Amino acid sequence: MAKPDKTALILVDVINSFFEVGHPNHYPGVEDVLEPMRALRDAARRSGAIVVHAVERHRKGFEDFEWRKLPIHHLEGAHDAAFFDDFAPHGPNETVVYKRRFSAFFATDLALFLHEQNVTRVVIAGVKTNVCIRATAQDAFASGFEPVVPREATNSNRPHLAEASLEDIDRYMGRVVPLDEAVELLS
Predict the structure, then answer these.
(1) Which residues form the Isochorismatase-like domain (predicted)?
(2) C-alpha–C-alpha distance, residues 101 and 57, integer Å
(3) CA atoms of 47 and 70, how far apart (whole Å)
């Protein structure tokens, strides 16, 4: 007999770098995802669903392959890498995964952790749709999870690439759903 689907929430890069005005990764409209992400987080907290805070962190003073393509950013202990506003982990069903690349799954123990918790589906929200969200959804699928992306809980400063990414996620990897449906999955 098949086990029922168990859903976890993955919040991707909800850090000052993207959400505080004046940081290089901030872009107009990014704040539109804050309330939808709060709705998802609050639903998960009420139901006891696992919440994973997947945040980019790099080691100060050490070489990082990412610096070949991007400027140095999100160093351990730096203000830009800190959790934004009220998005710090809170409660027994929340954990943090530090990532050094776009995907929350690549070179982390996230897949192992979620499999050990019998999770079968992940709701993925955060920034940016065409980079970290897409990479996380693709690796979630490759790791044996059903990725679900609530349309209102992700965006990008490249809207045309965000739309193409959502289309690919829905067609090839998982589902792109309205916020209410994702909240229901976490409730």
Answers:
(1) 7-178
(2) 9
(3) 39
- The DSSP H or E segment spanning 50 is none
Q: Tokens standing for 64?
A: 């990082």
The rounded distance, in Å, linking the Cα atoms of 102 and 85 is: 22
Q: Which fold has domain 7-186?
A: Rossmann fold (3.40.50)
Q: What are the domain boundaries of the chain? A: 7-186
Nearest-angstrom CA–CA distance, 126 and 105: 15
Contact between 36 and 125 under an 8 Å Cβ cutoff? The reply is yes
Q: At what angle do helices 34-47 and 179-186 cross, to 10 degrees?
A: 20
3-state SS track over 51-112: EEEEEECECCCCCCHHHHCCCCCCECCCHHHCECCCCCCCCCCEEEEEECCCCCCCCCCHHH
Q: Which two tokens stand for residue 52?
A: 């994973």
Q: What distance lies between CA 157 and its chain's CA centroid?
A: 16
> Which token pair is 154?
């992700």
**Which residues carry out catalysis?**
132
Q: Find residue 56's DSSP bridge partners.
A: 99
Query: pLDDT digits over 60-82, tens only?
Result: 989 888 888 887 788 899 999 99
